[in-house]
Q: What sequence folds into this?
């Protein structure tokens, strides 16, 4: 792990050890559940390296003010069982920190709030670009990387992550939508590997009125401060369901790859 990845690891929390120990004690104490215990023994703990790369260029975003690239912000992630840990489509933002990422690219509060969610096994923030000395957005050719661990078998474990579409009022990219992406496929034991960009979508947080992307006065870096745009009081929705402006194809902006690192 690089020094930058170690920095991101400082923002990570895990309850996996606690949950595993609690399950073992529970089975032994009541003297049943042998089949479940055998299934657990067949599961494998595996780590995954997740890479989020900015593949936009100077002509990706076509605006009335000329063409521009699309930076991506630091973001938050979670490994979890079946759930919608960060948001739910068609519902208002939960005041859990998603608004801070979608409007201002600040992941800290969402990463922290995920720690307290019962379905979340591991959560954290990716903040420092590969090769950089400190937290920053990523521009064309730059990337974030972080590592997570997950267990094969049942229940299925999922990965969710979000990062802001800069420059917008409240748009963000999400892996797997509200429920995330399963890290194991088929019978639950085959790890996901390779390019998973086709599982990434652009969403609107519904918290701030949209302006033309790359031009609006209430968008970074033009806004006079954080959380200063017109309040929308809407719901979280895929950008395809939101009337207004045209946005570049996701694959022209971001690429996400997942690499299994072997069993542990």
A:
């Amino acid at each position: 792990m690089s020094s930058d990845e170690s920095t991101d690891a400082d923002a990570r929390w895990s309850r996996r050890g606690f949950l595993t120990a609690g399950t073992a004690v529970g089975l032994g104490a009541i003297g049943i559940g042998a089949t479940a215990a055998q299934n657990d023994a067949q599961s494998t703990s595996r780590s995954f390296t997740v890479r989020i790369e900015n593949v936009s260029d100077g002509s990706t975003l076509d605006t009335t003010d000329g063409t521009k690239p699309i930076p991506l912000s630091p973001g938050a992630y979670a490994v979890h069982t079946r759930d919608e840990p960060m948001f739910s489509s068609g519902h208002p933002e939960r005041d859990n920190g998603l608004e801070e990422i979608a409007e201002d690219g600040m992941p800290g509060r969402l990463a922290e709030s995920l720690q307290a969610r019962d379905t979340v096994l591991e959560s954290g923030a990716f903040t420092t670009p590969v090769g950089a000395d400190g937290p920053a957005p990523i521009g064309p050719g730059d990337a974030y990387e972080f590592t997570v661990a997950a267990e094969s078998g049942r229940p299925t474990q999922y990965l969710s992550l979000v990062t802001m579409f800069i420059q917008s009022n409240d748009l963000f990219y999400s892996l797997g939508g509200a429920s995330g992406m399963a890290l194991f496929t088929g019978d639950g034991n085959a790890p996901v590997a390779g390019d998973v960009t086709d599982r990434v979508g652009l969403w609107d947080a519904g918290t701030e009125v949209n302006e033309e992307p790359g031009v609006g006065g209430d968008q970074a870096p033009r806004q006079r401060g954080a959380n200063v745009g017109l309040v929308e009081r809407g719901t979280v929705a895929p950008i395809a369901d939101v009337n207004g402006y045209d946005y570049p194809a996701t694959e022209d902006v971001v690429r996400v790859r997942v690499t299994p690192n072997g069993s542990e």
Notes: The chain is about 15% helix and 30% strand. The mean pLDDT is 85. The helical segments are 3-9, 16-30, 34-42, 98-104, 108-115.
